[in-house]
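queue> pop job 88
queue> type: inverse folding (structure -> sequence)
queue> payload:
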């Protein structure tokens, strides 16, 4: 399943599920101006994170709940 968060700092998190039957589609941040970025992909059961400089290294894997908690923390400024 593909878990898409529609969370904002003032709204509750909503997840929608969409089936994906292909290989992970890696995405870089729109703020990435170089090749030294973090890439994120979603699979049927995990959110994957990897270093774009070393895509051959196994990515970190997070559950949907872990990822939602992380995104909420970023939006709340917990990592500033």
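queue> result:
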């Amino acid at each position: 399943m593909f878990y898409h968060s529609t969370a904002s700092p003032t709204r509750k998190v909503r997840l929608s599920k969409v089936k994906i039957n292909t290989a992970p589609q890696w995405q870089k941040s729109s703020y990435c101006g170089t090749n030294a970025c973090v890439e994120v992909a979603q699979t049927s059961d995990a959110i994957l994170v990897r270093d774009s400089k070393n895509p051959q290294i196994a990515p970190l894997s997070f559950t949907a709940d872990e990822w939602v908690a992380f995104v909420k923390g970023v939006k709340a400024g917990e990592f500033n």
